[in-house]
Amino acid sequence: MHVTAARFVKSATRPAHYPAADFPEIAFAGRSNVGKSSLLNVLLQRRNLVRTSSTPGRTQLINFFILNEALSLVDLPGYGFAKVPLAVKNQWGPMVQTYLQSRPTLAALVLLFDIRREPRPDDLQLLDWLEQYQVPTIAVITKADKVGRSQWIARRKAIAEAAGLPVDAFTLFSAQTRQGCDELWERMQVALEQ
Ligand code: GDP
Question: Name one GO molecular function term (predicted).
Fold first, then answer.
């Protein structure tokens, strides 16, 4: 997709503060440090529109962006960061579940996994909610450049098995080499057309 315009719209924690649901929407989620901001900046073709490595402990927000005045991309707060205060940690589940249930324009959620790590219980919890709320899931393995090419197939298989998803559901991605960017856009396009 050729991005001619990308803009941040607003941050919100609850539906009353979400921007109007004017465009089809795709959300992005993953553990803190998985590479979500980096991936979003690659997709948005902006160097730093999405802040990388948000400071843990800060209030967690849902950030809304609009592309080409046609598509809404949503950056959900990262999860699983050990140092986040319990009060902040406890807000994450209800905030994300409410978002998944209440956004009529949500076409799919892109769930990110780090190629070097196994999926954790909070990743599996999110997958359960996606199934429960019938949100189509696009699975991405980030930081593919961090391991040798010879390990790609084995890492993808291990992550897919632990996540309980088919291997071919996963796109291998790298923000550094931009590997997987076109494939991810294609998968998003398919989800938008459903
Ligand atoms: P977020 O917390 O999920 O938003 O993660 P960030 O996008 O801030 O990335 C966390 C760290 O991983 C940063 O130091 C990034 O530079 C690095 N990173 C993200 N994506 C990639 C990638 O594809 N390849 C490599 N080598 N590093 C990456």
Answer: metal ion binding
